[in-house]
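Slide 14.
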Amino acid sequence: MAEQHNDCNTCGKCAGAAHECAQDTGCTLYTILIYSENIAGLLSQITAVFTRRQVNIESLNVCASSTPGVHKYTITCYCNEEMAKMLTKQIEKKIDVLQANYFTDDEIFILETSLLKISTPKMLDDANVSKIVRLHDARIVEVNPTYATIEKTGVTEDILSLYRSLDKLGVILQFVRSGRICITKSCVEQLDEYLNERERTRLSK
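Slide 15: predicted structure.
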C-alpha cells in the first residue's frame, strides 16, 4: 500500500490538486531566485515574507552558488505577478540579501529529481511496472527481495507522470521529490552584473 502524503512538494496527487486550484484562481507558478550571504537565520526571515502575505511555498531549495560566499535560494509559489513582484521587493529589503528576482517557467531551465521505492514482488509479478520505468526513462538504482529503488530526474510533470503511472498499479511504498533547481535563459548572470556594478560604484567613491 502506498504511503499517504499531505505535503504538496512530495505527493504527486497533492501537487496536481494545487495546480488545478491555482488555475481556477488565475494564479501562475513563479520561481523566485534569491542570492544572499551565508548568514544564519536568514531562511526564517525569507519564509516569514511569504507567511505575512499568506502565500504558500510549493518547494524550496538552498545551496551554494557559483559565486564564492553567496548562497542561492530557489523558491516556487502560486500567485499573480503583482504578488510575485511584491514578494521579491520585500525579500530584497533584507540586509543580507544581495538580489531577488521572479521568473515564469518559460524563462528558466528547470530540473528536479525524485526517488521511488516500489515493491519487488509486485514488480516481478507485473511486467507493466518495468515497462513504465523504461518508458519514463527512469533508472533502477537498487533491487533487493523486498523493494526496488527508482531514480527519476527531469521536469516536474515528467516526475509526476511516472509517479501516477506506478501509483495506479499499487506498487509504490515511498516517494520523494527534491526542490526545484534552475538556471535562467539569460546569457548574462544577473547576480554578476549586480556585483560588478556594486564594485564599480565602490571604486568611484
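Speaker note: Residues 1-10 have pLDDT under 50 and may be disordered.
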